[in-house]
């Protein structure tokens, strides 16, 4: 745990050292929301709003996980291999991605609210919606981390992550959108618990799989 | 190098022959076993509502029935809207037009126990056939206490069914129930092949070292993907004439589509890595990740949600209610037969992979390596089908043309696969034979399939 947290802190320091990294992601999210705002001209109907929110989150998430890492440099990778346990590394990387994606989810939600309104959401349902977005970020982060690392090892970037990742995250998106749909149509928050449970199970399952499988990626061939 | 020209053992040949026999049996039964009688349609021809109640004239269309010889009696039944208790009512003035058409009259009081009535026709030979919720008592009022007299004595002298071996009639599905023997085994076979691929990928990661394990994994995926695409196409055709759309948003269908996409992604991933060792391992990791998630997504999640597709969310496929014994005696042999065919195709695909690898390696030795046109992994005839005539054609004859369409898709798909692979195999063999014998590895070399154990097997240590 100590090692993992150390790596996590290290990843954040590296992240903050290059300021354009996070700012670029934020800019992408804001620009996408703004483009949608321009296209729909004002307040879209709730169903469209819901679909937009998740699609924007999805694309932002793909951007968030498939950026170049410092380990792409062979000398850094070689150094880490000799010093770092792969499972510690993987857990730290997942935490890092989940933190970024959760932040992006909140940012997307905030900008959606600012520019496009909250559809029919208010009070507890709004809180549940933002919570659902954060939980989706958790599930997306754990699933996409392994795939982005596979793509990075294959020497192909964003395109391969999307090809490998999109089918696998489709179920997460289906659960999330139906959660959003329920909340928008006024289902009481307690009745949407099953969606949260599914998202949690998916996050846990893909996270475990990622941690179990990652050591095989870590090895030098 | 690995031996690619291993002779097939007698046991394997026997199993394959057995599989072909099962398939021949299943396909023959699929098309030859008659469909049991059933009701296709119930129309209200005329209705007359007065203060006393309503009188309805029903026209009943059967399929495979023998109204003109069976002396049918007609009765309708409804479940009380409050306690679900059934009320039965006999119809009067039954006029038989021909074997599949009859007309009758139903008289109902102003207040009925429920609005929706199921229609039953009983006759000698055909037994009782029904149409659930076939008749809606428009203009009347449904109340739990209607006081409508229950005609129980109608049920006391029903005639027994006397039918040859037949498939059960299901409204709307009708003849296309035969697709059970064609469409469903595609997915079973795909799961078997993906399971083989999963096991081989697991071995790649656990044991490593031997490129043949990776070749097994990819050969299984390629064949499995072929079955998956055939499953999608046949399912789509079947859905069009039972649910009314080529594709519906449904957890089971989404899962099937995702499966095919994930394995297509697997092939894309393989294509984008040049270094064989790295490719082997990355592909194996992705394969395991994909397969395990798919088991969750396809077999666990759909059971918790509502679905049109049988077998999911309160829509059972394998209960005694749905899959009757006549279907079972054909369905199970069909599944086993298709699976044996699938593994046979896997063996052929593996042979192609091995031969390709061997030729590649021999050429590398020779120093005259050149790229050769690879077959695309899947090439399927596109389905361009539109128009009202086709509509009518596929609805004709109890949807039997849908079964034919499904059989043609599968037959064509598998024929294309076999033609392509056998041609490829012959081509590769001729390339192999044309290699100068000095470059060709010796028999001994082929036997020694390199199984170098992993150097850094203890990967969990930092």
Oligomer: heterodimer
Helix content of chain B: 40-55%
Q: Determine the structural class of chain A based on helices, strands and strand pairing.
A: mainly alpha
| Poorly predicted tracts of residues of chain B | 369-386, 450-462
- Shape summary of chain B: elongated
- The chain-level structural class of chain B is alpha+beta
Q: How many DSSP-defined strands of chain A? A: 0
Secondary structure tally, helices of chain B = 9
Beta-strand fraction estimate of chain A: under 5%
- Note the beta-strand portion of chain B: 15-25%
Largest sheet of chain A: none
Q: Name the poorly predicted regions of chain A.
A: none
What is the terminal-to-terminal distance of chain B? Answer: 34 Å
Explain the overall architecture:
The complex is a heterodimer of chains A (221) and B (462). Chain A is mainly α. In chain A, α2 runs antiparallel to α3. The radius of gyration of chain A is 18 Å and the shape is globular. Chain B has 462 residues and is α+β, with helices and mostly antiparallel strands. Chain B has nine helices and ten strands. In chain B, α3 packs antiparallel against α4 and α3 crosses α6.
């Amino acid at each position: 745990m100590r090692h993992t947290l150390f790596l996590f802190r290290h990843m954040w320091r590296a992240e903050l050292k290059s300021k354009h990294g996070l700012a670029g992601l934020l800019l992408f999210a804001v620009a996408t929301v703004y483009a949608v705002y321009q296209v729909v001209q004002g307040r879209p109907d709730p169903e469209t709003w819901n679909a937009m929110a998740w699609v924007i989150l999805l694309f932002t998430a793909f951007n968030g996980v498939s950026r170049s890492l410092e380990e792409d440099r062979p000398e850094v990778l070689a150094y880490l291999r000799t010093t770092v346990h792969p499972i510690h590394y993987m857990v730290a990387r997942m935490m890092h991605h989940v933190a970024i994606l959760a932040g992006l989810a909140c940012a997307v939600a905030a900008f959606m609210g600012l520019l496009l309104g909250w559809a029919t959401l208010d009070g507890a349902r709004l809180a549940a919606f933002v919570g659902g977005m954060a939980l989706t970020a958790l599930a997306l982060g754990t699933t996409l981390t392994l795939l982005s690392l596979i793509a990075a090892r294959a020497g192909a970037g964003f395109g391969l992550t999307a090809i490998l990742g999109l089918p696998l995250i489709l179920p997460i998106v289906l659960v999330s959108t139906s959660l959003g749909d329920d909340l928008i149509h006024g289902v009481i928050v307690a009745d949407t618990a099953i969606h949260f449970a599914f998202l949690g199970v998916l996050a846990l399952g893909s996270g475990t799989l990622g941690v179990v499988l990652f050591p095989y990626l870590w090895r030098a061939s | 190098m690995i031996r690619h020209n291993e002779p097939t053992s007698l046991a394997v040949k026997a199993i394959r022959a057995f599989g072909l026999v099962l398939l021949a049996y299943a396909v023959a039964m699929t098309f030859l076993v008659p469909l049991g009688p059933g009701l296709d349609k119930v129309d209200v021809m005329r209705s007359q509502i007065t203060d006393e109640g309503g009188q309805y004239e029903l026209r009943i269309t059967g399929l495979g029935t023998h109204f003109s010889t069976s002396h049918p009696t007609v009765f309708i039944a409804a479940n009380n809207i409050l306690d679900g208790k059934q009320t039965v009512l006999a119809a009067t003035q039954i006029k038989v037009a021909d074997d599949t058409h009859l007309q009758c009259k139903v008289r109902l009081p102003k207040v009925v126990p429920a609005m929706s009535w199921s229609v039953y026709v009983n006759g000698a030979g055909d037994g009782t056939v029904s149409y659930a919720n076939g008749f809606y008592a428009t203009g009347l009022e449904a109340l739990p206490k209607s006081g409508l007299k229950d005609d129980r004595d109608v049920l006391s002298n029903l005639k027994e069914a006397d039918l040859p071996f037949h498939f059960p009639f299901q409204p709307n599905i009708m003849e296309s129930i035969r697709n059970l023997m064609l469409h469903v085994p595609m997915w079973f076979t795909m799961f078997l092949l993906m399971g083989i691929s999963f096991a081989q990928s697991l071995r790649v990661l656990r044991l490593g070292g031997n490129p043949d394990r990776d070749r097994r994994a990819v050969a299984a995926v390629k064949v499995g993907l072929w079955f998956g695409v055939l499953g999608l196409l046949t399912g789509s055709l079947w859905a069009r004439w039972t649910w009314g759309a080529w594709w519906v948003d449904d957890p089971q269908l989404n899962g099937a589509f995702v499966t095919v996409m994930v394995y297509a992604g697997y092939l894309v991933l393989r294509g984008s890595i040049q270094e064989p060792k790295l490719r082997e391992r990355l592909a194996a990791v992705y394969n395991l990740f994909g397969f395990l998630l798919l088991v969750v997504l396809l077999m666990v999640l759909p059971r918790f949600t509502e679905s049109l597709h049988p077998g999911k969310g309160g829509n059972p496929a394998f209960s005694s209610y749905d899959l009757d014994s006549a279907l079972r005696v054909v369905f199970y042999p069909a599944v086993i037969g298709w699976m044996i065919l699938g593994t046979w195709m896997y063996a052929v695909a593996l042979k192609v992979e091995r031969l390709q690898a061997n030729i590649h390696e021999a050429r590398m030795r020779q120093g005259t390596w050149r790229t050769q046109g690879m077959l695309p992994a899947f090439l399927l005839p596109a389905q361009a089908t539109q128009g009202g005539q086709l509509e009518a054609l596929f609805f004709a004859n109890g949807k039997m043309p849908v079964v034919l369409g499904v059989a043609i898709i599968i037959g064509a798909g598998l024929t294309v696969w076999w033609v392509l692979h056998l041609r490829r195999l012959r081509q590769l063999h001729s390339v192999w034979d044309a290699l100068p014998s000095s470059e060709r590895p010796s028999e001994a070399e082929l036997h020694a399939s390199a199984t170098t154990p992993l150097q850094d097997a203890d990967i969990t240590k930092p």
